Amino acid sequence: MSAVAEVTSAVQIREVPVSRRHRTITGSVLVVVGVACALAFGLGSKAGATAAFKLSASGSYFSIPVISVPARLVGLLIGAAVTVLGVMQISRGFSRRAMRWVLTFTLVGVVVAFLCWAATGQGATIDVLGLLQQTIFLAVPLILGALGGILCERSGVVNVAIEGQMLAGAFAGSLVATLFSNNFIGILGAMLAGALMGTLLAVFAIKYLVNQVILGVVLNVFAAGLTGFLYDTLMAPDANTYNNPSPLQAVQLPVLGRIPFFGPLLFDQNWIVYATYLLIIGVQLALFRTRWGLRTRAVGEHPEAAETVGIKVRRTRYVNVIVAGLVAGLAGAFLTLGTVGAFSKGISSGKGFIALAAVIFGRWSPRGALGAALLFGFADALQTVLSFIGTPVAIPSAFLAMAPYLATIFAVAGLVGRVRAPGADGVPYEGR
Amino acid sequence: MSDSTTVVAAAPEPPPAPAPRLSRPRRVVRWLREGNSVMLTVYAFLLALAVGAVLIAVTNPATIKAAKYFFQAPADTFSAAWSAVSSAYSALFEGAIWDPATFSSGDWTKILYPLSSTLVNATPLILVGLSVGLAFRAGLFNIGGQGQIIIGAICAGYVGFNWHLPVGVHLLAALVAGTLGGALWGGVAGWLKARTGAHEVITTIMLNYIALYLLAYLLTVNGFQRPGSNQAISKVVDDNARLPHLLGSVLPVHAGLLLALAAAAAVGWLLKRSQLGFTLRAVGANPSAARTAGMDTERNKIVVMLIAGGLAGLAGCSQILGTNTAIYPTIDAGIGFNGITVALLGRGKPWGTVLAGLLFGALTSGGTVMQVNTHTSIELVTVLQSVIVVFIAAPALVAALFKTRGAAEGVGQSLATGWNG
Predict the structure, then answer these.
(1) CA dist A412 to A218, A284, A415, B190, B269, Å?
(2) N or C: which end of chain A has fewer CB within 10 A?
């Protein structure tokens, strides 16, 4: 066992010193971002205009007053701070750990400056609480999909089929919930459908050694075709019998739900969202604190070594891939039962792929994937909010819609440093 | 990457004893029972048709009704299922190849219409299939066909409806613009892969969405949107920039088909005869060995994605200059993704890809007729395509199902696997 543990831990402590060239590039990028932020959002805001932010909802213990800030000052301050950080990065250089905080500050700061600038456009109050609620709402399917991806890939099976599993789950969720008039049976049905897709992935990848990336893409096509066919044949002609679930209602948790700001944000959601909280913590703990997690990671990093110490490689992979399907199926259930209710063709609309990007961006850890999913969710939510508050300079909605995808490209292209997948990820195990 | 697979020096196998010479029919039978790639495709196709038949049967309203009294009259259920399946599949055949009902009319355009529409559908599929297949051979997975088609169509369309050039020159300019556009979009993914290691599966998918939104934006601005229209549709391409129809104006088949065949020949030449093709295949087969041999593997990735993108861009040209005359949001029509299945079915070989493109083109045009005549959803075709490819990719499964001797080589097994590759 200890040999395996060494293999898995040895890989994680590989710390490469930051090169001078790398420092100059990242530092210059920060300076450019800082100056651009000060010019566009600082000087770009009308002098003396204030930006108002709403943080409160009714029903809490007490309400937070609307916060007003001078937009120009905020933009200039944040821009200056980011520029200073960039200069520091060029001259001294931050450690990798500190750099993560610098990047986080830059990201949050620029977003705040941007929001201040946007709010001055028509003097509308920006509903920050609503924006963040929307973020969570949009991030939940991404988080669940990413958790499915992590469970699968940590055991060494590449999961490009998250999209297909979500689609199957979304379809089955709506169908089963309508047939039984019960949303919880619907959710079970969705998870089962995701698991069935996961089983297909597992059998073809593990037993028949099919290239996993190809297999994933083809399974996505299969899921799209199958759900599309069944939608056309069953649901479209007779929606009342097959496609008419009532969406899950938000359930306000007692006490927690009435905390100002955090209550409505986190604890006034539907059951799938609460399940997501538990799953994030559960998967994080299970992967890094339990025997099962250690075995999963060993199988994903070095199956031969794992086999040598008596871990059943294939069985571990089967279990993980199918459990991953269950979780991705739940993500699908959220798309139908958790939001609109009824299924429509292609309802997953690429969310499975973004979830996959979140897996990679989050470096195959639940915590990282959570951050990535929230980022994508926020970019998506921002777009809807901006489209109706109206910015000082009109930004076409198509460009805002592109933001999450551009962000993904920047992310995987190494904005946060090179990522390293589990060692045996995607390599079929032929046994010995 | 593959350091885990231990290299075991295999003992030299004794040369196989010469097989006794069989009579011709027995050799044919033996060939049919063997696991070879032709029979694998046939078996996969039959299996897919069987899966499709089950889907049609269990969702057919008449069959469902008859199944409710299955134990009183089981024959009713089977006859209802049979009639649903047979009518759907015969409509599929009539729409793809030949409709006997048109024969008596003696009108050649009607008789040839299904085949002609098959060829039109096959044209972009072949081009994208070549694009994906070429990338496969170099160890890259190009899922960006959709985005490359869209950018290709945008560029070709822009030249096609905003420039006004003489006959011949205009078409050429539009084709060049579309190809360059696609090449640029593919090249971005190749450049990202080469310079930063960003996996092309992720970047090409993201570039697909960016292209989609870019198109959505362009269809709302002056210079692109059709004047006087508030719908998402572009101006109409000039007559001079259109790909000419090959068999008269009624039959839809256009010169894009010739472009696709020429592209197949060019890709075949490139892979087999050129130095670039050799490098490309070497890098695809074993990047480390290729690097040791002094090949620039990173530059190779960029070049491959440029060419692959250009081929998909050409498919976009065929869509906008031949099949349609204006750009609309669904100009890609799923071809980007279907091209992947075409490439897999064609095993990354140019002429195999042409045949696979023809097969899937036939399924698409047959599917349209099937949907109209028998109300069987055209999504069935997507299911058929994916099932065919799944079986093609798992030769061991097909060998087990049909008890063939040995299994043919699967698809894409030489492709770099996983994210670290």
Answers:
(1) 23, 22, 7, 14, 35
(2) C
**pLDDT (0 to 100) of residue B3:** 43
* b/e A285-297 (16+ beta carbons within 10 angstroms → b): ebbeeeeebbbbb
A45 φ/ψ angles, rounded to the nearest 5 degrees: -80, 150
DSSP string over A39-60: IIIIITSPTT-EEEEE---TTS
pLDDT at res. B7? 43
Tally of helices (H runs) and strands (E runs) in chain A? 17, 5
User: In this predicted structure, what is the pLDDT of residue A418?
Assistant: 62
Rounded to a whole number of angstroms, the distance from the CA of B23 to the nearest CA of chain A is 35
**Predicted pLDDT of residue A128:** 87
ipTM for the complex shown: 0.86
What gap in Å lies between CA B411 and CA B153, rounded to an integer?
Answer: 30
A168 Cβ partners below 8 Å, 6+ apart? A193, A194, A196, A197, A223, A226, A227, A329, A332
Q: From A217, A213, A198, select the one nearest A332 (Cα to Cα).
A: A198
Question: Which spans in A13-95 are helix H?
Answer: 20-37, 71-91
Cβ burial of A14 (10 Å; 0-12, 13-18, 19+) is exposed
Mutation site, B1, B7, B195, B205, interface A, largest A CB count within 10 A: B205
Q: Which amino acid is it at B195?
A: R
CB contact under 8 A, A160 and B201: yes
Contact A401 B213 (CB under 8 A): yes
Query: Quick check: A265 and A246 in contact, CB under 8 A?
Result: no
Taking 70 as the pLDDT cut, the residues of chain A under it are 1-18, 414-419, 432
Nearest-CB residue to A211 (from B5, B205, B393): B393
Match 């100002």 to its residue by tokens: A260
Per-residue pLDDT tens for B311-326? Answer: 999 999 999 999 988 9
Average pLDDT value for residue range B71-82: 88
